[in-house]
Amino acid sequence: MKLKIFIGIVFMTFACDNNHDSVQSEINGEYVGTFERDGNTSNVTLDFNNGIYSGESEVVKFPAICNGNYSISNNSIQFQNECIWTAEFDWTLILSDEWRYGLSGNTLILSKTNGGKYTLTKQ
C-alpha cells in the first residue's frame, strides 16, 4: 500500500511540473501592449524566456520595467526584479511581486490588486 501511495505522489509531482513547463512555454515570447493604472496608460514591451523577463515602457518608470526572473504558479506569476531603482517614484510601479495572469490565444493580461493592469499581445 505504501508503494502505491509513493508512486501516486511521484506521478502527481511530475504531472504538476509538466503543467508548469507547459504554461511557461506558452508564455515565452515577445509581447507588446499597454500598462494602465489610475486612468494613466503607457505603451510597454515585455519578453519572457524560460523564467527570465525583460522589458521597457514608453513612459519612464510608468511602469518601471527592467529585467529579472519569474515563476508561474496556478494563475499567478511571481516576478523578481533584479534592477536597482532610485527612490523618487512610486515603487509599486516596479514589475515585481505577484501578478494574476490570464492567457487567451495571443493575449496575456497581468493584473495586480493595486489596480495595475498589463494588456499584451504576443508578437
Would you kindly provide a written description of the structure presented here, covering whatever features stand out?
This protein has one domain (2-122): Beta Barrel (Lipocalin). Helices cover 21% and strands 46% of the residues. The protein has one helix and eight strands. It has one helix at 2-27; strands at 29-37, 40-49, 52-57, 67-73, 76-81, 97-104, 107-111, 117-122. An eight-stranded antiparallel beta barrel has the order 1-2-3-4-5-6-7-8. The longest helix is centred in the first third of the chain and has 26 residues, at 2-27. The chain is globular, with a radius of gyration of 17 Å.
Keywords:
Lipocalin-like domain-containing protein, disordered N terminus, globular, 1 helix, 8 strands, about 120 residues, 8-stranded antiparallel β-barrel, alpha+beta, Lipocalin
Terminal CA distance reads 50 Å
Taken together, the total number of domains comes to 1
Number of strands: 8
Which percent bin holds the helix content?
A: 10-25%
**Residues in β-strands, percent:** over 45%
Element string (H = helix, E = strand): HEEEEEEEE
Architecture per CATH nomenclature, i.e. the level-2 architecture? Beta Barrel
Quick gist of this model?
The chain has 123 residues and is α+β, with helices and mostly antiparallel strands. It has a single domain (2-122), classed as Lipocalin (Beta Barrel). The protein has one helix at residues 2-27, and strands spanning 29-37, 40-49, 52-57, 67-73, 76-81, 97-104, 107-111, 117-122.
